[in-house]
Amino acid sequence: MRSSLRPLATVITGGMLALTLAACGGSSDSTDTGSTGSEPKAAASPVAALTNLTGEKTEVVVDAGFLKGVTGLGLTPGVVGTATLTNGTLAFPITGGTATYYTPGSRNPYVESSIEHTGSGISLTNGKTKVELTNFVVDAGKSILTGDVSANGASVVKCAPLFFLDGRTLQPLQVDQAAGKGVLFGTTVSLTKEAADLLNKTYGTMALTEYFKVGVTRITLKLA
Question: Considering its fold, how many domains does the chain have in total?
Fold first, then answer.
């Protein structure tokens, strides 16, 4: 009987090659989060510049089409670590990083960040192979969300480009001064080609594609 570990090893090797080529520090052809399409303007002053982020969360309101797509492939979505999934909304606690917000139109991109979510993530399993995507970092300036990938507990790649962040749908910063919170809502999240290819190879399908919509983000930050 052929070992069930052999196809998994093949997937991990192929996935590692594809994702490593575009891992942290690689270029992105996606639209900048918060981009207005105008040329950059000099000497813009930030509305908010946050460092050493702790507390609050990044949420993804999961698109019904994504849920239908993955369940139709016989995959069961789940959460990892401190992440939660409630009424179709994924939530990942913010554990560190920075975020800077400028007045829309004053520069491009008008949101820049490195928002960390250590110790949480999502999983997809078909009962034999479980893929976990964890430790997300939101890089708004490059319009990308990176994370670590593992399969059946074995690390595949670290800091891989997993999701595009399209800021053309981002709404203006909402500030609740009394609560000391700011909310960025509306960025569209979709799969990168690298992530789609890895998942397709892992689960033997061609259904997942680049720009496959995952959902819409709501990032809640402490302002002080």
Answer: 1
